[in-house]
Specification:
two-stranded antiparallel sheet
């Protein structure tokens, strides 16, 4: 019998920027998204905290249309 560590098939590993310029671009993109979407956490009708956004598409990470 073979044993292997359990892995979640739905977790995606995203490569991080390797250089300072790439990290700066990533920070800028994140800041633009936060400014556009203004995420807040509010409880749903069952009391579970959920993210809410001011613009459509933000739940998918859309920065601009």
């Amino acid at each position: 019998m073979l044993w292997a560590p359990l892995r979640d098939p739905y977790i995606r590993r995203v490569p991080q920027p390797r250089d300072a310029a790439g990290r700066a671009r990533a920070r800028e993109a994140d800041q633009l998204w936060v400014e556009r979407c203004r995420p807040t956490i509010r409880p749903d009708r069952f009391g579970v905290p959920r993210y809410h956004y001011t613009r459509p598409g933000c739940e998918f990470g859309v920065i601009a249309y």
